[in-house]
């Protein structure tokens, strides 16, 4: 196993915990957990790029980064208006 795969596996438990907190938790915790899950997910995709030597995976990570901010803003507006 390469170091990149081990680093990816080490990031899986925090990703699972942040996704679980996104589903269950107070609204403020959900927003913070969503941001953490996005950050960890992008980091995992970037590590997989180096682990598999396929440059196309980094495009998915960059797309996730670009969509994270508008997604967070939409969730914030929803929480402010309806919760």
Plain-language structure description:
The chain is mainly alpha-helical and 83 residues long. It has one domain (3-82). 87% of the residues lie in helices and 0% in strands. The protein has four helices and no strands. It has helices at 3-10, 12-23, 27-52, 57-82. Helix 1 (3-10) packs antiparallel against helix 3 (27-52) and helix 3 runs antiparallel to helix 4. The longest helix is centred in the middle third of the chain and has 26 residues, at 27-52. The radius of gyration is 15 Å and the shape is flat. The termini are far apart. The relative contact order is 0.13.
Key words describing this protein structure:
83 residues; mainly alpha
What's the arrangement of secondary structure elements?
Layout: H1 3-10, H2 12-23, H3 27-52, H4 57-82
Helix pairs in contact: 1-3, 2-3, 3-4
Give a short account of the largest sheet: none
Shape: flat
Strand proportion, as a percent range, falls in: under 5%
Number of domains: 1
What share of the residues lie within helices?
Answer: over 70%
H/E element string? Answer: HHHH
Quick check: average pLDDT? 91
Show unreliable segments: none
What structural class do you assign from the helix and strand content?
mainly alpha
- Span between termini: 46 Å
Number of strands: 0
Tally of alpha and pi helices:
4
- Tell me the Rg in angstroms: 15 Å
């Amino acid at each position: 196993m390469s170091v990149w795969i081990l680093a990816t596996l080490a990031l899986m438990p925090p990703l699972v915990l942040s996704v679980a907190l996104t589903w269950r938790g107070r609204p403020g915790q959900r927003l913070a957990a969503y941001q953490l899950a996005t950050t960890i997910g992008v980091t995992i995709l970037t590590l997989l790029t180096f682990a598999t030597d396929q440059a196309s995976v980094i495009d998915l990570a960059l797309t996730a980064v670009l969509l994270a901010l508008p997604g967070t803003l939409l969730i914030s507006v929803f929480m402010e208006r309806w919760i």
